[in-house]
From TrEMBL:
Protein name: ferredoxin--NADP(+) reductase
Pfam families found in the cross-reference section: NAD_binding_1
Domain FAD-binding FR-type stretches: 4-110
Translocase keyword on record: no
Superkingdom assignment: Bacteria
Entry similarity comment: Belongs to the ferredoxin--NADP reductase type 1 family.
GO biological process: cellular response to oxidative stress; heme catabolic process
Alphabetical keyword list: Nucleotide-binding
GO function terms (MF aspect): ferredoxin-NADP+ reductase activity; nucleotide binding
Keyword Cytoplasm: no
InterPro entries named in the record: FAD-bd_FR_type (IPR017927), FNR_bac (IPR033892), FNR_nucleotide-bd (IPR039261), FNR_type-1 (IPR051930), OxRdtase_FAD/NAD-bd (IPR001433), Riboflavin_synthase-like_b-brl (IPR017938)
Catalytic activity: 2 reduced [2Fe-2S]-[ferredoxin] + NADP(+) + H(+) = 2 oxidized [2Fe-2S]-[ferredoxin] + NADPH
EC number per UniProt: 1.18.1.2
Amino acid sequence: MTDTKYTRQTIIDVRTWVPGKLFSVHATRDPAFAFQAGQFARVGLPAADAPDAEPTIWRAYSMVSAPHEAHLEFYSIVVPEGEFSPRMAELRAGDALYVEKKPYGFLTLERFTPGGTLWLLASGTGLSAYLSILRDPATWKAFDRIVLVHGVRTAQELAYRAEIESWRTHPDYAAYFAEDPRKLVYLPIATREALPGMPQARLTTLIADGGLETLAGETLDPERAKIMLCGNPEMLTDARKLLGERGFAPGRRGIPGNLAVENYW
């Protein structure tokens, strides 16, 4: 291998959430590849007309898998006519997937001081980084409560919903819920479909009108709340403005803030 910046990994399986639109891949993980929950990797494939050649097309994907897990997991939308994601969705067990040796990104819990309520606000596949963060036991120990908000268009796009809802009785998480039944508040919200007990609204609308706080049973208090935003650029721009007006801001010069943002587009 002429380029030592990446390793060749092998697809274990591909899970389709919404045919032709949303999928996840499991792949092997190089033992030397270390990352923090919330970071992303650059993932590569060779050109379509040279499937056995070295990788030349690269895209960034947050790890869904936790730092301690033996395999890598990525969650993706299929971009119509895209050069990468449609081919990635068609990979099968045994196929090659290339991963750069260095992880990237700063959407990690190091951005915050422990304590208070951690708010994880995502639209679409922006959920990816939060799954890695929530699969990491350190997250559950670092904060009093966690609010996970996943904004989608329709219910079928709520990937990983069953896993998230199963944590309440899962051996790795049940003790936290025994101490506090509201240790994790999961809010799946759709804009084009009314879900039971949930408003049909955009995340930014719910931030603006106080609906998100009502649903969570928690206040967006900059003294106690730490917020992560991950999703499409429009949502991030609007949410940052709304939260900035309420006293939320990223950390500066080594001083921890109460807001962390990553564009997932």
